[in-house]
Amino acid sequence: MNDDPITSYLVQRLEQRPAHSKRLTNPLITVTISFCGNFWESSRTGLDAAVQFLHRGEGGRRGREGLGVSAGGGPAGRENLVARPGPIRRSKSERRRFCLWATRPVPSSPSSSSLPPPPVLLLLLLLVLLVRPPAAPPQLRASEPLARPGRMLANLQGVAFLPFLLVTWSSAAFIISYVIAVLEGHVNPFLPYISDTGTTPPESGIFGFMINISAFLGAATMYTRFKIVKKQSETSHFISPVFNIVSFGLGLVGCIGMCIVANFQELAVPVVHDGGALLAFVCGVIYTLLQSIISYKSCPRWNSVTMSRIRMVISAVSCAAVVPMIAFASLISITKLEWNPDEKDYKNHLGSAICEWTVAFGFIFYFLTFIPDFQDVTVKATLEIQNIE
């Protein structure tokens, strides 16, 4: 430290502070005071404010007694430095006013033209001493889900991959077989039956293979949904176990109907094919309707009202489409792949095909709504061997 009388006076005043402020004597404060002493003549008011801020920072931090320094103006400001004990609170507005003062431009004068600029280093040291680091953000609760419906495709947690894989695989089965059948010239591009796109080779092999896998994925998804509802109902008792079992059984029958449609082509065995299609569509529609009722019963603990309404709308549209689909199909007198608008059964074929595609994609969108419910579910397989010696 230099021998400047101002600096010596400040050190002497600081050594007379209360015992609880001993932390004020550290190398950083000493450097700050020494730096301020060199600028006393150019910014006496700034030095007074700096010392006062240093005392306020330590006193407010202790939370009990502090040491405040009041500085008087004029040439005798050094003798007007008075220590006054008592609780002093330091607000953000005081910090802001001091920072604005410390960075203000100093007007030039003949006597101070060679003096250095305002104490910017003092401002940096005060920021290090007085400014607190920002509080850490609150951590997410362990039970809070990370993915919501708006981001359900970005974070497939738990067993959410089951309905997602079912939706993507089934959509690919319909689209791929349709594209191949149209490119090969086996069906008309405008709204053929779904089964028509999988009747003639080579698309028939692709259609049968992919629909069989879709039926398996559908059964796995329905079984997982059945176990989820069963577990939830054990604590909330919102639905009868029989209702849940009936819904699951109808879903499995619909999956069996899908396998029949995939393995028995429309032109080869039309009766068996039509019977499988009837099982798949009717049982599937009833399954979605029963699941919508379960969703409403489980509100608001296990499902949101918005999601329940979406499911009910999809199931209602599917129910409204399956009835005219069956009615129009029963009026068609001949089974064929290529239709002309001039034929008498063309309108019945067109109406039935529109309803069939509506029901099929209704199933796809319905299973898509299962993804948020499956994200918080984990399936574990256990193996037990009995009679081991």
TrEMBL record:
Pfam families referenced in this protein's UniProt entry, alphabetically: Frag1 (PF10277)
The name this protein goes by in its record: CWH43-like N-terminal domain-containing protein
Positions of the CWH43-like N-terminal domain: 159-376
InterPro entries: CWH43_N, DRAM/TMEM150_Autophagy_Mod
Main location as per UniProt: membrane
Gene: LOC100075664
GO cellular component: endomembrane system; lysosome
GO process annotations (BP): regulation of autophagy
Assigned keywords, A-Z: Membrane, Transmembrane, Transmembrane helix
Lineage: Eukaryota, Metazoa, Chordata, Craniata, Vertebrata
